[in-house]
Amino acid sequence: MNILYIGDIMGEPGRETVRLLLPNLRKELNADLVIAQAENVSHGVGITPQHMDELISFGVDAFTGGNHIYKKDGIHSRLKDTKSPIIGPANMNVCPGNGYISVETANGSVLVVSILGSIFPLKDGESTENPLKTIDTILEDNNGKHHVATIVNFHGDWSSEKIAIGHYLDGRVSAVVGDHWHVPTADARILPKGTAHISDVGMTGALDSCLGVELDKIIPRWRDGVKNKNELEVNKPWQLNAVLISTSSSTEAKLITQIHREIN
Ligand SMILES: [Fe+2]
Questions:
Q1: From the CA of 39, how far away is ligand 1's center (Å)?
Q2: What does pTM read for this prediction?
Q3: pLDDT of the residue at 121
Q4: What is the 44 CA–ligand 1 centroid distance (Å)?
């Protein structure tokens, strides 16, 4: 089956990009399932239930989560609800829910898992369990349940950890899709034992920005140490970054293709 995974949807420009592009993209790519990274949907930090419903109406079927996913209170009940198609990292102490979900599709049930890297800039009170051991437990818990595909989202900061978990899960899941950097990497490929992998999908939102934030805020910070707040860049051009994964089973994929679109 064809699974489209959309990288971090960053604020209103990200949501608008999905609204404008996804209906046609779904048809063009023959996508059976659309998954998106939701941790930056609502003004860059977390996602509200309203924005989640809006993105579902644009064609997103399920949502993964990074370190910010739990930061809007209204989403907690959905993160806990195994019938609601949104998860946060399975190994993050403060995030509600178990971090994985079975998503029903016309082709069968797909297991979607979110994991946070262990080397990560966390806030006070936030911590993680070992990601590799966490995914072992999740795969054991789901052993015997029939899934036509298994997609693992790895929200991580270190390239070595992103590569390591890809190979650790090679031949055990359909795909390991990295994100968090908001910058796509050029390493999408099928690993030796058949699992699709990319270190980072990149983001969806303002193109002429620093990871979605106004350059006028970020450059003075780097040049002169100016202490200012992030402001989201809202002006076009906007970009959508995604990968299309053609899976063959819950442990293998045939193809992973990077997708990049712009709106001027
Ligand atoms: Fe993000």
A1: 6
A2: 0.98
A3: 87
A4: 8
Tell me the C-alpha distance between 177 and 170, whole Å: 12
Catalytic residue among 43, 51, 68, 180: 68
**Structural domains of the chain sorted by starting position, each given as residue range(s) with its CATH number in brackets:** 2-263 (3.60.21.10)
| Number of Cβ atoms within 10 Å of the Cβ of 229 | 6
Q: Ligand 1: distance of its center to the CA of 146 in Å?
A: 31
Q: What is the pLDDT of residue 109?
A: 98
Q: What is the pLDDT of residues 122-157, one digit of tens each?
A: 999 999 999 999 999 999 999 999 999 999 999 999
Listed in order, strand segments (DSSP E) in 185-251 are 189-190, 196-198, 205-206, 238-249
Active site (annotated) includes residue 68: yes
The residues, ordered by sequence, that sit 6+ positions from 185 with a Cβ below 8 Å of its Cβ are: 178, 198, 199, 200, 202
Give the burial class of 19: count Cβ atoms within 10 A of its Cβ; 0-12 exposed, 13-18 middle, 19 or more buried: middle
User: How many whole angstroms from 40 Cα to the centroid of ligand 1?
Assistant: 5
SS3 157: coil
CA 143 to ligand 1 center in whole angstroms: 30
